[in-house]
Structure formats: C-alpha cells, structure tokens
Amino acid sequence: MAALDESLVPSSLLMSKEQSSSPLQVFFKDARNVFKLDELGLEIAEIAFPAALALTADPVASLVDTAFIGQIGPVELAAVGVSIAVFNQVSRIAIFPLVSVTTSFVAEDDAASKMATELESGDSERCSSENSELKELIPTNDTEKGENHSSFSSDNVTTVAKLESERKHIPSVSSALVIGGVLGLLQALFLISGAIPILAFMGVKSDSPMLTPARQYLTLRSLGAPAVLLSLAMQGVFRGLKDTKTPLYATVAGDATNIILDPIFMFVFHLGVSGAAIAHVISQYLIALILLWRLLRQVDVLPPTIKDLQLGRFLKNGFLLLMRVVAVTFCVTLAASMAARQGSIPMAAFQICLQVWLATSLLADGLAVAGQAILASAFARKEHHRATAAASRVLQWGMVLGLVLCAVLGIGLQFASRLFTKDVDVLHLIHIGIPFVALTQPINALAFVFDGINFGASDFAYSAYSMVLVAIISIICLVILSSSHGFIGLWVALSIYMSLRMLAGFWRIGTARGPWTFLRNQF
User: I want to staple 217 with a disulfide (CB 3.0 to 4.6 A). Which of 69, 83, 384, 438 is the partner?
Assistant: First the structure.
C-alpha cells in the first residue's frame, strides 16, 4: 500500500501524533519484555550480577575482619572502627571519580577500536579478494615454489603478529593506571604523615587509650593505598570492557586471603590490630596483582607517547565527579551528625537504619555498572536505538529490584532489627524508621541506575551540577526538619534527597536534553 500523504491528513491529527510522542516513552519502551533474556537482557545480567557480587564481597570481608578484632577487646574494636572510617572516607573521594570516569572512557575507546578494526578487516577482505583474482591470472613458476620453503618461518611471524594484535591499544587504560598509582601514593603519604592529627580531628585525643591501636592500624593499612587505588582503577577498566567476572574473582581471592590471614597474624603471631592491617594490605596487593596479570594479557598498557595518556580529559571529568562525591558525602555525614546531636539512642537507631539503607544500594549499583558500560559503548558507536533500549531495560529492572527490596525490608526488618540491638528504646526508633527505609527502595534503585546511565552518556557535568543543587536543597531540608521533627524529620529529609536525585535523572532524559537530544526524533 502506498504511504499516506501527510498533506491530506488534518493538522489536528498531526498535532495529536506529535503530542503523543514524547521522550518520556523511553521509560516504558518494551516494558512487556522486561524479564525477557534476549541478547540485551543477557548482556545486562552478565555484567550486573558479577558486579553486584564484587561490590558486596568487600563489606562481607570487613564484617569478618571486625568480628576477629572484636575478640581482642572493645578499645581495639573502637580504634579500628575510627581508622577504617578515616581510610574509607579519604579513599572514596579519589575512588569514585576515578572508577566512574575510567569505565566510561574505556568503553568508548574500546568501541572506537572495534569500529576501526571492523573497517580495516572490511578493506583487507576486499584487497585479498582482488589479489586472489590477480593470482589466478599469473602462472606459478619455480621461483614461487622456492619461496614456499620459507612458509614455516613466515607462518611463525604471522602467529606472533596475531598474538601481538590481540592485545588492545586503549589509551584511557594507561591514563587510569597512572592516575590511580599517583593518587594511591599521595593517599598513603597523607594518611601516614598525618595519622595523629587526623585521628585527633576524629575525636581520638592524645590521652585516649584508642590512640595507639588506631594509629598502628591506620598507618599500616595506608601502605596498601596504592594497591587499593590501582586495583579499583583496573576494575573500572574491566567494567568498561564489559568484564565484571575478572574483578569478582580477584576480589573474592583477595578477601578470602584476608579472612585466612587475619587469625594467623592476630592470634598465632600475636600482632593484634597490626596483624589485621597487615593481612588486609597483603590481600589488596594480591587483588591488584591478579587484575594486572589479567589486564596485561588483554591490553597494551604502555602508551606510545606521553600525549596519548589523556590526563587532561581524566582530570577535567574527574574533578566534576569529585564535586558530586563531596556533595553526596556531605549530605549523609550531616544527617549522621544531626542524629548524634539528638542523643545516643537516636544515633544508634539512625546508624542501623542508615547502614541497611545504604547496603541495599550495592545491588542497584550492579545494574548501574551494566548500564554505564553498555551505554558508553553504544554512544561511542552512535547506536542510539541500542542506547535507548539499554537505558529502558536497566531502569525497568531497577524499578523491579526496588519493589522487591521494599517488600523484603518492610517485612524482614521487623524481625531482623533484634539482631542489631536488644535496647527497647533503640528498637522503637528503628521500627519508626523501617517504613522510610523500605518505601524509598524503588526511589533509591532508580536514582543509582540513573547515575550509571548519565555516566554512560558521559554526562558528567550535568551529574555534578545537578547533584550540588540537590545537596543544597537537601541540606536545608535536613536542618529544618531535624530541628522540628527530630528522628522522623531526618528520614523525611533523606527521602526528599533521594527523590530529588531520581527526579534529576528523569528530567534529563524525559526532556531529551544534553546527550539525549536524539530522543526527540525517536518517539
């Protein structure tokens, strides 16, 4: 049937067609196939599931670590808790921008490299077909037969060349390793040289019995900072290559080593908290070595020239994400400090609810990693339809995950709360906080998945500036609501904070702005 001439269609119908088409439809695209394990669904699952397991492996190892240290005494346990908090906060400032930027840039460079290879292979196939036609026209002679005697050596050269070509040349990998190594060394020097004043700032004064074990643990664990930053930079590389299994295997191997070495160094060699720190450092260097060994087999990490390092590109976008990390950290830290001002009981209840609230985000982070890797590759290849499908699918999976977590936490925390404390007053406040922890899970999941989508689209500037604006509004809400409504006010403010993060993601894609302008022509 011939196509209908739009000039014959009433303008009112054309207007209704345009009005019905909206970029917001990306959130509902192929919603019936949300659970379908097609090519896209399998790719998301293969990236997201190992990534989520790798993210949860380290917290589990830290819990085991804490259990061993708790056997020494309460002073040592408290001291190590302060040291771990310091180390994690300093590391987070460097880790999050580095890993996020690395994942996107490696995925883009890898996609560009594959496109170039496809073009070259296409040209070589055409050339080989032309050469074969010419060879048919040229008769063979004795000289050619003599040349065949050297086929063995030429085959060897070809094999070596093939093995060399299998290693990818991705400039962003070299950049990530250089920046990760430098940041790791700077972090180690900062924490070792400033251990005492940093601990004093955290409330561990010179006359505190916690000072000696806290300083010992922080100083020794800081020796592993270069390995931590390097391994996380390499995890970003593997995520960009859509390989989350290798980081999972390396993390599990390292954490298992830590768990095995903990009691040996602490109780057999009688090294106490120093033994725990040494075991942790060994495990981190093991993880880094495993990842580096695997990476060297896939990628040529030495750049041809210093100009190929792309340090400016990393630092520019890394600084934007650093702004974002500071904004996020400040909001959560401010909420905790305001809970502490309300007293020990509200603080204890708030801390338990907050840890559960944040721990569940690791599952959504797995989806965010998958979305980021797939989208970065699709944008690099200008495959907008694939980018749209991937964004739709991970958002729909995020919503489903959030609803499942909502049901599990809403029911499970009613009973599991007694595993954390026996205090009646604390339990009472925990039960007040459970509805907020449970009902915000769909919001949290979508907010974290939107982060991955924005990073995959290399929309770092919007992610940073929108997060700063969200933080400013959330801080005002925290100050006002916590002073007027106490414990409940804190959770209302945190719910507003996560809702604003989610809405910022909806607005960017729903209005088809920034890298999503192509959506205006798709629906």
Answer: 83
Question: What is the reported pLDDT for 180?
Answer: 92
Burial class (CB in 10 A: 0-12, 13-18, 19+), 494: buried
Q: Which residues of 327-356 are buried (b: 16+ CB within 10 A; e: fewer)?
A: bbeebeebbeebbeebeebbbbbbebbbeb
Alpha carbon distance 148, 151 (integer Å): 5
Question: Is 299 in a helix, a strand, or coil?
Answer: strand
Q: Which of 63, 70, 86, 82 is nearest to 212 (CA)?
A: 82
Q: Is 299 exposed, middle or buried (0-12, 13-18, 19+ CB in 10 A)?
A: buried
Phi, psi (deg, nearest 5) at residue 223: -65, -20
Residue percentage of the chain with pLDDT more than 90: 41
The closest of 52, 172, 154 to 105, measured between CA atoms, is 172
Cα 433 vs. chain centroid, distance in angstroms?
27
Residue 496 in tokens: 């507003």
Taking only the tens place, the pLDDT of each residue in 248-271 is 999 999 999 999 999 999 999 999
Domain boundaries, given as residue ranges, for the chain: 23-53+320-523, 67-122+166-309
Output phi, psi for 93, to 5 deg.
-60, -35
* The pLDDT of residue 140 is above 50: no
Residue 486, sorted as left (phi over 0), alpha (psi -120 to 50) or beta, turns out to be left
What pLDDT digit, counting tens, does each position of 55-85 carry?
Answer: 877 777 776 777 788 788 877 877 787 787 7
CA 415 to CA 404: how far, in whole Å?
17
- Tokens 């054309």 sit on residue: 14
Instruction: Compute the 3-state secondary structure of the chain and give helix, strand, coil in percent, each to the nearest 5.
Output: 85, 0, 15
- At 104 the three-state DSSP class reads helix
pLDDT single digits (tens) 287-331: 999 999 999 999 888 766 666 677 788 888 888 888 888 888 888
Task: Count CB atoms within 10 A of the CB of residue 26.
Answer: 20
> Are the C-beta atoms of residues 277 and 216 closer than 8 Å to each other?
yes
